[in-house]
Amino acid sequence: MNSFGKSFNTNGTKKAGASSTLFGRALPAQGSGSIFGGAAWPPPSNEGHSPESAETAETTDGSAESSRDASSDDIPTELLNVPPATVNDLTDYVNLVFKYLAFRDWTATVLAAPLLSLDNEHARCSFLQVENPTIAAGPDASAEDALLYELIGGHISVIHYASVQDWVSAFAMQSAIVTVYRQEIVAKEKNSNWFIPLAYVICDDLWKLAKKIQATHNQLDEEDSGHEYLDKVVTHTMGLYQTCTRDSRIELDQSKKVGIFQLTVLLLQIYFETNKMALLKPLLRAVHILPFVFRERLSTSDLVLYSFYLGKKNMFDSDLQMSDKALEYAFKYCPERYFDNKRRILIYWIPVKMFLGEIPLDNLLDDYGLSEFKMIANGVREGNIRQLREGIVRNRQFLMQSGVYLMVEKLAQLTYFALFKRLVGILGTHKIKLEAFQCLLTFLGEDIRHIDEVVCIISNLIAKKKIRGYISKMHNVVVLSKENPFD
Hints:
The protein is mainly alpha-helical. It contains 20 helices and 6 strands.
């Protein structure tokens, strides 16, 4: 059953969408309908990145909840033969992580990446909460191996600082990890990219630690709000991003450009949360011109999260058609088990859909706990401007916290349109007196004191091609087209 109703018929009744999909139509997977521009990124396939196996857009605290898919191509035989490991102490943990990284293989690094993330359950193990771990690389270890041990040791120190909530020290150590990773591994490795799956993980941890510092400063009501730490995250992440973009190779197993997409996703999150959306355009352009072959390294979670932020940006840019496609993609491929993430997507998608003339049904709002939109949706559907304004006032805090308050306020024009269509249906004529519409608006609580205000409302609807007709100012009448007067 379609959960959005196509609204605003001439007679004021609701007409169901033509498609049986959740939102009335399926997002085209290729061609000019691509939400990414140029060649389309394909929807997840059953072979590599299935919707059931990937995580998605955003957790309730705003962080990315992702599971980086491993590529099945060229997996070392030894990796397939690695037996299940039990980690009982620090030595077991170090040996396990190093074993994966020592393969110097993309898939092995994908498997190791969660073991270097603060989100993983290992970060809560007491035996890993060591400030200065003693990790010996061994006399026969190469300089490259010693560097990997150094990264592992640094992560263990970060776990310790995070466990005692010393966020500043944790941030400093994580910054050092990112710096070493970028300067000693990414910049110096010339003919491989096995290390790229670590980029998102270590930068994402840095971002989360910066937010912890900012939250602590806000709780203490300190003048220093911690913004400089957020700026440092951008500097580190952009440095890594630029190192990847400068790589001229195009081979899938060598080019560092395969890391651009995930770093772009992280930068999108950062710029949205720091209100620097003007910096998004060059990032999106770089994604659009990525070689199509790099899609093999993208997981469903990457695509969903990117689509979510792309949809938000297009919404704020008033590009509603592109926003609709992007948010539809994000919602469609976000697994059902990630209820909070699908709900977050709907918070932005519902206003976009209403602007496009599709009103959410009550069962959709009930299913996802979005009763805040009920009065607003009913007001727009019925042309009840009083109900719309009451719904906005009652749920102002929710709308402002969600970032859609201004968007929802603009629905007044659409509500005027629905109300005018109902009036036309009742009167049954193509000539509508402006005074009749003025009386209706006044009855519904609008402060309309002069007929010129009604003229302004109708003129805007005509200019936006919602109404086909003209205003006869001499007779104060709206003359509608006899054929298809409404868009």
